[in-house]
Amino acid sequence: KAGVTQTPRYLIKTRGQQVTLSCSPISGHRSVSWYQQTPGQGLQFLFEYFSETQRNKGNFPGRFSGRQFSNSRSEMNVSTLELGDSALYLCASALGYSGNTIYFGEGSWLTVV
Amino acid sequence: GNSVTQMEGPVTLSEEAFLTINCTYTATGYPSLFWYVQYPGEGLQLLLKATKADDKGSNKGFEATYRKETTSFHLEKGSVQVSDSAVYFCALSPETSGSRLTFGEGTQLTVNP
After folding, report:
1. ∠ CA A65-A41-A26 to the nearest 5 degrees?
2. Which residue intervals of A21-93 are DSSP H helices?
3. Residues of B in Cβ contact (< 8 Å) with A94
4. Fewest Cβ atoms nearer than 10 Å: which of A26, A70, B47, B108?
């Protein structure tokens, strides 16, 4: 079956703009989480959704937001982009809320210029 | 809080050498433990996992054993190949309260022919 699908794969934005990234989890998976990966900070947790509710949130400013739809698909939004937001954004999905294997998508590469 | 400490890299080996990448963790209860691998320009691929003490995860010749007494989950492979060159991440997810992954810093492995 299909894995975690993220779109777009690559994008370039200008400072001050906003961006929306999309994630389709593995079929049947109800938990979706997002991570930011940068060379300096490594892999950092952004937020986690289960059954359309945000269950956990990492230490990121309010410019970073997300949501989950009834079909478990998720989007994350970053407003007022800064150069430091340039990163690989990874989406992951799991079958249930806890204790499950977590699978990642290929990521969305965001460059802010 | 939860934390993962991973052997610092980079690690450079010759083909057919033995590989060990150390990973220790701090967490309450019985977290699930994972090794993920990231090839250049790609997302994270699940390499192996273990969900309870003394479990051994294995895949593609890689192995890791969940050691509760030493809070460790070291990755080993008896004979590495050039194609194993990648970045390896040790991670844990909590026993309860969600699927949030805590990652180690990552270890860059380069295997020379």
Report:
1. 50
2. none
3. 99
4. A70
Give the up-direction half-sphere exposure of residue A60: CA atoms within 13 A in the CB hemisphere: 26
**Could B43 and A56 be called an inter-chain contact, meaning their C-beta atoms sit closer than 8 Å?**
no
Model confidence over B7-64: pLDDT tens digits? 878 999 999 999 999 999 999 888 999 999 999 888 999 999 999 999 999 999 999 9
Among candidates B43, B49, B94 on the partner chain, residue whose Cβ is nearest the Cβ of A106:
B43
Which residues 29-68 in chain A show a CB within 8 A of chain B? 31, 33, 35, 42-43, 45, 48, 50, 55-56
Structure tokens at A90: 């990874």
Q: What are the mean pLDDT values of chain A's consecutive 10-residue runs (113 residues total)?
A: 91 98 96 94 93 93 97 97 97 86 94 98
Number of cross-chain residue pairs from A and B with Cβ atoms under 8 Å apart: 68
Q: pLDDT at position A47, please?
A: 93
